[in-house]
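By convention, the C-alpha cell line describes the chain's fold. To illustrate:
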Amino acid sequence: MNPLRTIRARRNHSNVLGFTLLEMMVVITIILILLSLATGRYQQSVVRAKEASLKQDLAVMRKAIDQYTLDKLAAPQSLDDLVSAGYLREVPTDPITLKKDWLVDYETEVLFSPEQTSTGVSNVHSASDKVSPFEGTAYNSW
C-alpha cells in the first residue's frame, strides 16, 4: 500500500466530516444579524404594549371621574376618592413611570351638570415627559 495514498485518503475523509472556519463564521454572522433584528422588534412591541396599557388606564380613570362626578354631583378631590367610593379597585400604576404618580387636572369653573355642587379632578395624565416613538407626542399630553 502506498503511504501517499493513505495520507490523501485521510485528508479527503477529514474534510468531509467537519466545517471550515469560514463556514462557521458565516453561520454565526447570520445568527447574530437575526438576533439583532428580533431584539429590536421585541423592544418595539414592549413599548407598544406599555402605550396601549397607558391609553386603557387613562380611559378607565377618565370614565370613573365622569361617573363619580355625575353620581355624586361633585367632582372627586383626588384619585383616591375614586377608590374609596368604589369606582376604581385601585389607582393603577403608570406603565411608563412604573409609579402611581398621575398628573391630575383640577377644574375650578366648568361643571358637568347644572346640579353639580363642587369642582375637583376633571382629567388625568401620565407623569412621564418622555415622547412616544410611534406618535411623536409626550405621554403627559395624552
